[in-house]
Amino acid sequence: MLSPVAQISKTYGSFGEVLVRVNSSEFESYLEDCVSGDFKEPVFIYYEGLPVPFFIRSAKHRSGNAYVVVFTTIGDEKRAQEFVGQNLYVESQVLRGDSPADDNGLEIDDFSVLHGFTILNQNDIEVGKIVGVMEFPANICLEVKRTFSDSEPVLIPLHEDLIIRLSESERILKLHIADGLF
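and the corresponding structure tokens:
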């Protein structure tokens, strides 16, 4: 589950820096604990109704609840201006400092174990099997061989908000899949 933690209030420089107003003491502690650029978890910005992950390259305390933040994929002022006014979200476990797990204790961030799992959609219809996991810098995607199709595998983004059920014992991953993807 994503929690709102900050808002981008304005650009701050010509190399994509933004001024962020933090509204979560836990996220502020996270930013301060990662002073050496050790940001392992992404923040999310909603784009066209979907959460898009962004990784923080650096964060420097400015004053009060304001931080100057540099993202890895925003490199100029024009691009940074597109995000002014947007809220930043983090996965709730980042604030708590733990990892999400299903009822069987399988950690979701252990992606290699998902190979061979059957994918079900929100209507309990089998749509395919996971034949690979691709870890891109800002996104994890499942490579899914579609059931009843000889076509190439399809990439499906993997995000905690899309997971309905994960069962290691049954080797099933039930996802909310957008209409038209399959």
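(Above: one complete record from the training split.) The chain has two domains: 2-96, 111-175.
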